[in-house]
Amino acid sequence: MWMICKKEWQQFFNSLTGYIAIAIFLLLNGLFLFVFPDTSLLDYGYASLSGFFSYCPWILLFLVPTITMRSIADEYKGGTFELLKTWPLSASQIVWGKFLGAVIIMLVALLPTVIYAVSMQQLSAIGGIDKGSTAGSYIGLFLLGAVFSAIGICTSSFTNNTVVAFVTGAFLCFLLYTGFEAVSKLPVFKNGADYYIEMLGINFHYNSISRGVVDTRDIVYFASVIVLFLLITQRNIIKR
């Protein structure tokens, strides 16, 4: 499994695309945080990273499919999938290895953003940032990225075209992130069902963790979604 994980890491960083994707991710976050007037944290008047944690998921929604689009699609396209099957690895080990590789890459992209929290803490005149909420939000971002990684790998296992894998992965991430919340706001669900429909969406549980309270139900939800999509990927690989 760790062989596959290492292979994913090397495949991503052996091309210029990997470095460009992470550089764009950090550049966009920096621009939203400190440059653009409507979102600049310097204009808030108080130390808070709430703006960063509200729009970062949208940037992750495009970054993670970029990481995962070549994961299995390239194996099909390049003919290396046949070679991969000859390795002494089960389908689950291949899938989990690719998932761990994508999650580690995503974590590498997120780690530099900790500088933003340190900067806001240093710039604050009184009190500083809410450390509990900030820590919870980072946990939420990590879990969100892990779910997006599982979805991206799953969509990559259905095609040998990386562009199709990216578009499909990004669309499915978007749908699961905001779709249930949008449906819950329909008038027909105003009788109390709206809350339960919204609970099915990723955004509901991400916002819950971002408040600084790590609820077991939210962890179970994220873990369940990850396992579900990885099982679908595993089943698809076995069929091939």
UniProtKB/TrEMBL annotation:
Keywords: Cell membrane, Membrane, Transmembrane, Transmembrane helix. GO terms for molecular function: ABC-type transporter activity. It is a multi-pass membrane protein. It comes from the Bacteria. The keyword Signal does not apply. The chain crosses the membrane at residues 12-32, 52-73, 94-118, 138-155, 162-180, 219-238. GO terms for cellular component: plasma membrane. It holds the Pfam family ABC2_membrane_2. It is found in: Cell membrane. NCBIfam families: ABC_perm_GldF (TIGR03518). This is Gliding motility-associated ABC transporter permease subunit GldF. It comes from Filimonas zeae. The lineage of its organism: Bacteria, Pseudomonadati, Bacteroidota, Chitinophagia, Chitinophagales.
